[in-house]
Specification:
three-stranded mixed sheet; 7 helices; 25% helix
């Protein structure tokens, strides 16, 4: 007689016992993007930054196709209304809390600007329709762009123009998490994802020049810091996304004239990324997002993580 062995529960938190109920529960990377139907719009800006919608869509599709080849990419519908020009920057809409086993909890951003609040409402409606539990903090919060998962229940949280530390006090109490608070004081680098990028569960790219020793010490209790300069951050080094073993970064180096100061900065940033990537067995893939970069946005702003499954991928 053949003994029938009942199925054993999986010890892998990434292998759900039931069929996934939302994209965050998939055992492959999942992201939220928004096609730039509502962006860019004419604003008070220099003539050289006049919006070019066709170029914006072409660059969106370049990034979309690259990510969708390895991940589920859900496209957030753009409502038929005006007043949501920056909806394309989905990382500002909120954050899916990675440490909760159900992976069905989203903290929606809460910003002072009415336009950004309208955009967050669009994101909240989407998440509710998908069955997520949504929470809106009383304090200011800038979404995933200001809150990065490090490991376990530990996050790095930037506070300054878009988020305030009291919001992280509430999150810690409500969701049994720990947030390492980092003050964002440089007006040109006002989002955490512009100065910090989790590389692996053990290592994090950080612009150490911008933070106090006590902040860095608190961060080092949870991750090994890989240093990056302010100049490289301004060129977009930290505004990156990991996709399995690929380091995605934006670069418009081929649009620049060799020998110019901007060209030299871009080349230096790319070389720094490639040097770090080589030590960790990353591949680097650049996407030209100049239309968005001209308006101050980096690659990470265009992708909201619905899960961080890529960080379960072993590089070595």
């Amino acid at each position: 007689m053949i003994a029938v062995v009942p199925p054993q529960p999986s010890l892998d938190p990434w292998e759900p016992a039931l069929l996934p109920a939302n994209p965050s529960q998939l055992t492959r990377p999942a992201f939220l993007m928004n096609a730039p139907f509502s962006w860019p719009v004419p604003r008070a800006q220099p003539a050289e930054r006049v919006p070019r919608p066709r170029r914006a869509f072409a660059q969106f599709f370049d990034l979309y196709h690259l990510v969708a080849a390895e991940a589920l990419v859900t496209v957030l519908p753009t409502p038929g209304l005006t007043g949501v020009p920056d909806l394309v920057f989905t990382a500002n809409l909120g954050v899916v809390l990675e440490h909760l086993n159900e992976r069905d909890t989203v903290v929606i951003s809460n910003q002072a600007d009415e336009v950004r609040r309208a955009e967050a409402a669009v994101g909240a409606d989407f998440f509710r329709a998908m069955g997520y539990r949504t929470h809106v903090p009383e304090g200011r919060f800038g979404g995933e762009a200001d809150l990065k998962h490090l490991r376990g229940n530990v996050y790095a949280g930037g506070h300054g123009r878009f988020s305030e530390p009291e919001t992280y006090d509430w999150m810690e109490g409500a969701f049994e998490m720990e947030v390492v608070r980092l003050a964002l004081t440089d007006p040109g680098l006002s989002r955490l994802d512009q100065v910090l990028f989790p590389l692996t569960k053990e290592k994090t790219l950080v612009c150490t020049e911008l933070f106090e020793r006590a902040e860095l010490a608190a961060l080092e209790r949870h991750t090994e810091i890989v240093q990056v300069s302010i100049e490289d951050c301004r060129a977009g080094a930290c505004g990156s996304v990991r996709l399995h073993n690929v380091w995605l970064n934006s670069s418009h180096v081929h649009d620049l004239r060799a020998g110019t100061e901007e060209y030299q900065r871009e080349v230096a940033k790319n070389r720094r990324i490639e040097d770090i990537a080589a030590t960790l067995a990353f591949e680097v893939n650049y996407v030209n997002l100049s239309e968005y970069r001209d308006h101050g946005a980096q690659l990470s702003a265009l992708l909201l993580h619905l899960n961080r499954f890529s960080y379960a991928f072993q590089l070595l």
